[in-house]
Amino acid sequence: MASTKHRWAVLATTIAASAAVAACGSSSDSSSGGGGSSGATATITVGIPTDDASYAPLYLAEDRDLFAKYHVKVKPVVFKGGADLAKAVAGGSVDVAVSALSEMLLAVQQHQAMKAFWGGYNQTTFAWFGQKGLTSVEAGKGKKWGVTKIGSSTDFLTRYLFKQHGINPTNGAKVIGVGSSAAQIAALKAKQVDATSASNLTAYQLEDQGFPVLAKQSDFAKEYPNHVAYAKESYLQQHRTDVQHLLQGMIAGFELAKSDPKAAADALVKHMHVSPQNAQRAYTDNVGGWYADGRLPGAADMNVFWQIGVLNGQWPKAMPESQWLDKSFIDSQAKWKGATA
Q1: How many angstroms separate the first and last alpha carbons of the chain?
Q2: DSSP string, 300-312
Q3: FRET label pair with 123: which of 5, 227, 281, 284, CA 20 to 30 Å apart?
Q4: Which segment of 6-10, 264-268, 274-278 scores lowest on mean pLDDT?
Q5: Contacts by 256-264, CB closer than 8 A, 24 or more apart
């Protein structure tokens, strides 16, 4: 395996090799208890859609080898988007994804037997910036708005923002896919767009360059299901003990990130290649949304999530939990989270 410095920089093109690991590397039993797998080490392929500051607890768990205590070896894979990651989970080349709930739900609607089983990443980190002189979302009516990609979470959130400010989400403004991070900044600087969405690390650069903030995601939701851990239902049934051990390592990562801001910021410097100052800013913006107990947002904020999906045609109405959530891991954690493998 590569050194820890590069372990979360594995390219998605290596997924074929990971498939063989996923097929034979997990040495779990199918019991429902929280005990170990006869002392054997389970290899679990874990995918994320892209590197992001919100993943600091996961980076820490891997960098500090917090999974080893529970006899788990994580094979990390970074993709170029959540849709491709969902396909990899469906195909069996990734065991567990930690990614957007919306992308998993789209796969469920396509009759993929997947379930979310853990939350804990409930940040509202998106913001929208405009050209200098643009002072409000309402003033952006009829103008060009940049998002990472048409059909992405930033696209859906932007159209929901339009509705909140009296702009027709379908044709009240022109939404353009410009790419992520550097491309968003370049598009705004070159005046290819009048406004753009931005995650927090991109937002810091735009703020520093004097572009005005038009709105923040936190304006309409205190929390949001930013990422969930999900897997095929068959994997959760057959490897329940290993999944519990994986979660024990993840919980340790959450707890370390919450208790040691410097360790979390240092992980972001290494994995995100950002300055220590911006890493600390990102930590401050994300820490309030990390929950070691894997909770999802409350009912009011989840209602906003479902409204966004309805507005954008992702689903006709809120889906019952029984269709997409396996609550048994969250509900039973008191029995196994402190156990030693």
Answers
A1: 23
A2: HHHHHHHHHHHHT
A3: 5
A4: 6-10
A5: 256/57, 256/60, 256/61, 256/64, 256/66, 257/56, 257/57, 257/60, 257/287, 257/290, 258/287, 258/290, 258/292, 261/287, 263/60, 264/56, 264/57, 264/60
Strand 72-78: give its sheet, edge to edge: 72-78, 42-48, 96-99, 227-232, 114-121
Give the whole-angstrom CA distance, residue 302 versus residue 32: 29
Q: Give the C-alpha separation, 254 to 64, whole Å.
A: 12
pLDDT the model gives residue 50: 87
Amino acid letter, 228: V
**Is-contact 204 281, C-beta < 8 A?**
yes
Q: For the residues 275-295, what does the mean pLDDT come to? A: 96
Residue 44 — φ and ψ, nearest 5°?
-125, 125
Which of 336, 325, 320 has its CA nearest to residue 240?
336
Task: Name the token pair of 100.
Answer: 């957007």
pLDDT of amino acid 7: 62
**Which residue in 289, 130, 118 sits closest to 196, CA to CA?**
130
What are the structure tokens assigned to 152, written together?
């992405």
CB atoms within 10 A of CB 324: 18
In the chain, the domains with their CATH numbers are 7-123+224-336 (3.40.190.10), 127-219 (3.40.190.10)
